[in-house]
Amino acid sequence: MLNKNYDERCDVWSVGVILYILLSGKPPFDGDDDHEITEQVKIGNYNMSGGIWEVLSADAKRLIRGMLTYNYKNRITAKEALNDVWFQNASTKQVDIELMQESLKNLAKFSATQKLQQATMSMMVQNMVTKEEVARLQQVFVQLDTNKDGKLQYEEVLSGYEQFYGDMAKDEVDRIFALVDVDNSGEIDFSEFVTATVDKGKLL
């Protein structure tokens, strides 16, 4: 997708990333920000050694490799993944309780890391953002808040961002709402908006 040249197997890649996280509690491609993560994705290298990977089955690792094959033309299809022996054996194989506990613990740790990052950023925004930056973002917020209810609905933000981002507007608005709208209410207030849109590099 990043190279504007893909077919439906880009979704197989996405599911492979999710499966990797579910089994290990860590993302296959990581970085300090979206740019670094994107660069890692472009390289396409990931690690399946050490830690929990030592006890996960060869079938599970082979399936992930098939789903995360860099060249999409050589990547397995969704049907091939679904018919993989790892899935076929899942219904008959006895669950390894210790392995399941380890996987769930790693997954919880991954979730906690995301929440800690969000909480830390919120604290930094509340205590460190300059008055000038707040005033600048408030002007943007007011302009986006077309019904003047003090909160931004998804449609309001999307409408405003389309003026500047064009076809990329939906991706940016989805990112903002995924970051701050944790209760899925479909709206964000000003403090949440500042957290999502402040210049992270400048803040750090």
Short account of what is shown:
By secondary structure, this protein is an all-alpha fold.
Characterise this structure:
- By secondary structure, this protein is an all-alpha fold.
- It has two domains: 88 residues, Transferase(Phosphotransferase), domain 1 (Orthogonal Bundle), CATH 1.10.510; 75 residues, Orthogonal Bundle (Recoverin, domain 1), CATH 1.10.238.10.
- The protein is 63% helix and 2% strand.
- It has eleven helices and two strands; from the N terminus they run H-H-H-H-H-H-H-E-H-H-E-H-H.
- A two-stranded antiparallel ribbon has the order 1-2.
- Helix 1 crosses helix 6, helix 6 packs across helix 10 and helix 9 crosses helix 10.
- The longest helix has 32 residues.
- The protein is elongated, with a radius of gyration of 21 Å.
- It starts with 8 loop residues before the first helix and ends with a helix.
Write the layout of secondary structure elements.
Layout: H1 9-24, H2 34-43, H3 58-67, H4 78-82, H5 85-90, H6 97-128, H7 131-144, E1 152-153, H8 154-165, H9 169-180, E2 187-188, H10 190-197, H11 200-203
Antiparallel strand pairs: 1-2
